[in-house]
Amino acid sequence: MISLLLLAMTPAADPAPAWEKEESAHLINIKQLTFDFVRAGEGYFSPDGTKIIYQAEEKDTGNPFYQIFVQDLKTGSYRRVSPGTGKTTCAYFRPDGKKIIFASSHEDRQAKAKHEAEYKRREDAKGARQRYSWDFDPFMKIYEAEPDGSGLKCLTPMANVYTAEGSYSADGKQIVFAAGSAGDVSLYIMNADGSKTRPLTTVRNCYNGGPFFSPDGTKVIFRSDRKEKDRLQLYVINSDGTGEKALTDNDKWVYWAPYWYKDGKHIIYTAADHSDEKARPNYDLYWMNIDTGKSVRLTFAPGADVLPVFSPDGTKVMWTSSRDGRSPPQLYIADFKAPKE
What we know:
By secondary structure, this protein is mainly beta. The chain has a single domain (16-336), classed as Methylamine Dehydrogenase, Chain H (7 Propeller). The model is unreliable at 1-14 (pLDDT under 50). The chain has three helices and 24 strands.
């Protein structure tokens, strides 16, 4: 009788929101990975899938900008591997796991002064809606380092030129990256040691960025606003600079952060409807067959879901999200079930 009474008094569990059910078709066992930061995101897996590298803003350090961290997926322990001064972005493991690259502005002599300026800007903007914008800092350079952050070496010592958004080819011999200035950023390929840089894209006076080699190294996926400023679309190009092809062509939407699936025939990416200038666009993750253009929506949460990547074996997806639309962005991971075609 007592047990029946207790059972009757126990409140029923709230039903899962409809959007969680929709996500469960392809994303299973969703878990948050980062907790100790003001914000965190843009994570990538190590070649063996046991670690991740990402950018995050530390608490109470006097630096409001992202720094780079490496985290063990099993234990959750992490360490900062970037210098701690200035801005950083776009970290990536070399395919043999023995090196990492990331972009940093730590050699800017005014870096610390910019820390204070950013804190002041945030204080002045409290309560106001912030429009996202990317700063093409000319002090941002690509650096190579050991996985613990030691042995830092600049690979792109170009004066007064933004260089960032770098990633390796699958054999580790080449790096594709973005370089230029605001309004005129192109893609380049260089040897992994920083030598023999050559242009990949030829369309100028626009932004071309976020490049990744296909698993077989024959193609590069990227984003560009060449059709309309800030209205990013997705493109694929052969790694020798030929055969460029647009994968999206809807100027009412913004598409970005494409990343290859292991088969080299599909990508995962971020997109949102920008047709209503008065509405706040809600970014979600999508899956696409690059040959047919067929796409499938993967996330349905109230918050933004962006910057997705696959684990090396393709069984997991990691991405940046606020999930509820109110919390600061953090990294999330889920088991992945590929859509059927």
